[in-house]
Amino acid sequence: MTALPRTGLPGTVPAGTVPAGEEPGHDGPSDLHAHFDQTLDRERRIEPRDWMPDAYRSTMIRQIAQHAHSEIIGMQPEGNWITRAPSLRRKAILIAKVQDEAGHGMYLYSAAETLGADRADLTDKLVHGRQKYSSIFNYPTLTYADVGVIGWLVDGAAICNQVPLCRSSYGPYARAMVRICKEESFHQRQGYELLMTMMRGTAAQRAMVQDATNRFWWPSLMMFGPPDDQSPNTAQSMAWGIKRHTNDELRQRFVDMTVPQAEKLGVTLPDPDLRWNAQREHCDFGSVDWAEFMAVVKGNGPCNAQRVARRKAAHDEGAWVREAAAAYAAKHARREAA
Ligand code: FAQ
Q1: Is the pTM of this model over 0.70?
Q2: Residue 280: CB atoms within 10 Å
Q3: 134: Cβ below 6 Å to ligand 1?
């Protein structure tokens, strides 16, 4: 891939982040750009107080917000099964997993706030369709096997994508990712363990696992984003060290990693073109239906309307909690000031 320049992008300085006399227009923005570039070249992190180009800031806010929204909307498909978990043990595990996803959303919204984003504004953009969340969460969860397959494939894909983001150039995002990846890794194993248990069960249970795998395989490959030649953000995000690998590289890594896991589990991945290519030392796989991906991203997937409506209802129903918390904080601030 051709490296993009890191300098020459439009940039502004948020108030109070740069000592007086060093703002653009005094020493000139080129010094600030040079410092930003040097930080990236030395593989150091950009921190909230550092100067950064506007486009870097807005790209980071976009990616972090989409990621946060994905974690929060991502609670819904599995949350759907909490009341119907087949045992107390499975219910406790599922509640803990869904709660972890809420926690991931919270770290990520906090990371976006360090860039000057407002959490209420991000939620508003989500519920009004002005910011995206991962396409994968617009598919329904029809049986309990879906809970296991989400853990195995969806958390598996999330880990593949997110482990390199622990080295992302923006400090608060990279640090949030370290903890998130540890938890996602645990989620992936719980999903695989659930599926192993079901595969040792009845023929009907094995059929449920196969059916869930058939429905979630292709959408999981879509999680990595459009092919590299149709990805408008990858080149610049790689040049800035926000992304460390392209969408296609990570998709390939996920396929290679998952094929032996499917064999061990005893399920067939629904792709007749899937086979080891000794020359490439990677698995070949069939074509993803990018028309379906685009339809889902544009809001026309099977569950988009339901997911966003549920998120909006939860936000509206929680207004009194936010008001009570703000009133409580104001009361304590008044007492401390007195
Ligand atoms: N769905 O130019 P690119 C989880 C958008 S894991 C919807 O390639 P970029 C854990 C993209 O944003 C899931 N939209 O963009 C969990 C861009 O939008 P724009 C979340 C997608 O950013 C597990 C446009 O298409 N993980 O939640 C998708 O360089 C189980 C063009 O694409 C993350 O967010 C998609 N699949 O690369 C929770 C990881 N793909 O600019 C519950 C962090 C692309 O038009 C249960 N994010 N788009 O507004 C990333 O690594 C990147 O943002 C990519 C996309 C790789 C997702």
Answers
A1: yes
A2: 9
A3: yes
